[in-house]
Design goal:
By secondary structure, the protein is mainly α. Helices cover 80% and strands 1% of the residues. The chain has 15 helices and two strands. A two-stranded antiparallel ribbon has the order 1-2.
Length: 386
Amino acid sequence: MAEAGINSENREFGSRLLMGARKKRIRMIGSRIGHSILVLVASSSLIALLFIFYFIIRDAVPFFQLEGFREFFSSTKWYPSRETAEFGALAIFVGSGLVTLGAVLFSVPVGALASLCLSDILPFSMKQIVKPVIEMLAAIPSVVYGFFALVIFAPMLQEKGGSLLSVGALIVLVPLNIILVIVVSDLLSNLFSRRMRLAARIIIASGSAAFAFLVVSRIYLFLNGLVISSGTNAINASVVLGIMALPTIVSVSEDALNAVGRELREGSYALGATRAETLLKVVMPAAKSGITAAVILGVMRAIGETMVVWMASGNASRIPKPWFNLLEPVRTLTATIAGDMGEADHVTGSARYHVLFAMALCLLVIAFVSNLISEMIVRRSRKRVA
């Protein structure tokens, strides 16, 4: 009896382990449904990107069929609301490039130096104060930046533009030159013997400091004598865009610098390298791919920004003379799309309506190609480091 009871229990236990055909089918269907949902969620961003490309291309192509490519890319006459409309967008492309270039010139050196200070120079207690302050800049809405640029920064530029630019140049150039003098004297003094090193360092530092003082003073005097006719211009938008791009550049660059192993730094110090040599020749080359990605992300932030350039750039559809003059008003692609879409919406189907989608397509292609290039740079750098 006992043996029969054990056998029946074993059969019952076995029936629990062995899955019937119906259960197998239900489990297989559930597994496939779950797998399909996960694939759909993972590819949602790709599907959204394809839909964006499709709808923008669908509304951009009619403009090129109606007006062609030549006038759009080569003319500077932008009169879309005239009876005989003209759609020359060359000045708008130049304006977008000029504002982005100004933002890059401001944000990349400041961002790179700030990330280097946060990762290797500042003490931990000060880093806990400085880093949250920089990251808070990313939380400020772009319309607030635009309001600041239009109401506060633009009148200051127009009334005291020369003095303001000269003081700003001092704030950026003085610490930058101090660091350069220290680094140059440190590097060049190592070429001398140990007995002569201290004297060589003093002489090189004195010469470098004198040269830096001459350069900075010439720049200060030049900027101090400038007269700015309008405060809403390219430099206004560039500075504010540079400030907006700083959190991205600083955070991503600092993460890349911190990701460089401690053993690399200690190995460099063990071989007799100085702190400057370690930072310049070991840490920064090892973090080059991350810093490059940070810079490209910052550039993308500047290219795609709308509200600040709409409020602060002056919206003048003409190429500055000379073309790199940041003190003249310019017009950008994003500001043109945002400003003209309200009026063009009443003439849906016309060239005036479709030209805005042609501009959006150009912006999308520029951003897409830039991202592809950044991915290539990062992968190549990682392979080289590995």
